[in-house]
Structure formats: structure tokens, C-alpha cells
Amino acid sequence: MGIPENIDALLVKFDITQEALARIAGVAPSSVNGWRNGAVPRKNAIEKMCQALEITRDDIMSDEFGLAAKEHGRVPSGAKLPSEPRPAYAPLLGRVHAGDACEPDIIDDRIPIPYEVRSAHPDGYFLEVEGNCMSRVYPEGCHIYIDPRQQPRNGSVAVVSIDGADYVMRRLYNTGRTIVLSPDSWDDSYEDIVITGEDERTVEYVGTVVWFQPAEEME
């Protein structure tokens, strides 16, 4: 047994998808697919998985003491098994359009979320995605968890309010004088929204996307 088996065991034990594990590790889903085929995760990704899932480095990297071996009953003396995820919930406050900017719909609901994610971003909340301008990373119907206190870096996926009312989710790039809101879609018909200092438009930062829940995991 090795890394591929340990990654598969993580997906089964925590009942998460490959895409969800990628979000936890801060990598692309293709990286997780590579791990499942023998690639070695980077140190930063390992640390994020260990912290979020409360597991050890050996659970991912070890042939003898990894999670797959533990799941098959070969637990070494003195080993500590990861604890079960603690339940947590966050409010679902509305819908955000991943396409053209539009006024957000208001919803009153709660969505389950990993305890560790909720603890790291206690002021966060969910929005339901409509449209597919961000379909490469956040498919329509999924729930994105945004943190209003986490400032976006260039390239972060952020939710912004345009002209005081319209909400849109895009990759945000800020040059100081120009704000570019870029799509990340399988549909190449979407174009950048470009707002310069000369435009009589306002852009208000709403929050940075820090986690998401695929629609199929809600069923």
C-alpha cells in the first residue's frame, strides 16, 4: 500500500469527492488525480489535509502505517487514529450569479460544513451558484462558502457587488487603477468585466471563496 491507496482511503473514510479533497489541500482536482496514480503530494498540501482532516503525515505518505493500512486493520501499537469530523453548519444567505451581474436572491437555510473550515472562517456564509461563468472551478448549483474578512489576492475567486446592488462571482485582479473580473468557464463566450478609475461605477468587495460544497453531495 502507498500514496494512491491512502488517498482513496481518505475519500472513502471522510465521504468526500476528489474535488472536495482538492479544495481542502489547496490544489487542482488534477493534482488529486495524480496522487491517486502515484504522484507525491507537496508538503503544503499534506499539511493542509492533515490540519483539516485531523490526520497525520503517515496517514498519507506511509506504506505501512498509512490510512489504507489502518482501514484494513493493521494499526501499529501507539498509533492515533483520526477523529470523526465534528458537525458544523453555516447559513445559506442567497444566490450569486456566475455570469452576468444580477441582484442576489435571499435564502434562509443552513448547510453542513466541515468543522475545521467553519472554525477557520467563523464569519463565513454560503451562497448558491447560478450560471456557469466559473464552471471550471465552481459548477452551477454548488454552494460556495465565502469569508467576508479574508481579503482576496490577485487571482482569488471573489464575490463583489457592482453599483451597490448586483452580485457577481469572478476571479479578481486589481492593478490599483483597474479592476478586472475574469470568468473561468468551459464556455468561452464569457468576457472580462473591466472597471477603470474613469468609470462611474462602484465595486464593493463582498467576500473571498474559501470552500465549496458540490451539489451532488447535498443529495
Brief characterization of the structure:
With 219 residues, this protein is an alpha+beta fold.
Description:
- 24% of the residues lie in helices and 28% in strands.
- The chain is an alpha+beta fold and 219 residues long.
- It has a nine-stranded mixed beta sheet with strand order 2-1-3-4-9-5-6-7-8.
- The protein is elongated, with a radius of gyration of 19 Å.
What are the defining features of this structure?
about 220 residues; single chain; 9-stranded mixed β-sheet; elongated; alpha+beta; 9 strands; 7 helices
List the helices and strands and how they pair.
Blueprint: H1 3-13, H2 18-25, H3 29-35, H4 43-53, H5 57-61, H6 67-71, E1 89-97, E2 106-112, H7 115-120, E3 125-130, E4 143-147, E5 157-162, E6 166-174, E7 178-182, E8 193-196, E9 203-213
Helix pairs in contact: 2-3
Determine the number of helices (DSSP H or I, runs of at least 4 residues): 7
Strand content: 25-35%
- Classify the secondary structure makeup into a structural class: alpha+beta
> Over all CA atoms, what is the radius of gyration?
19 Å
Unreliable stretches, pLDDT < 50, 5 or more residues?
100-104
Task: Report how far the terminal alpha carbons are from each other.
Answer: 32 Å
Q: What's the total count of β strands?
A: 9
Percent range of helical residues: 10-25%
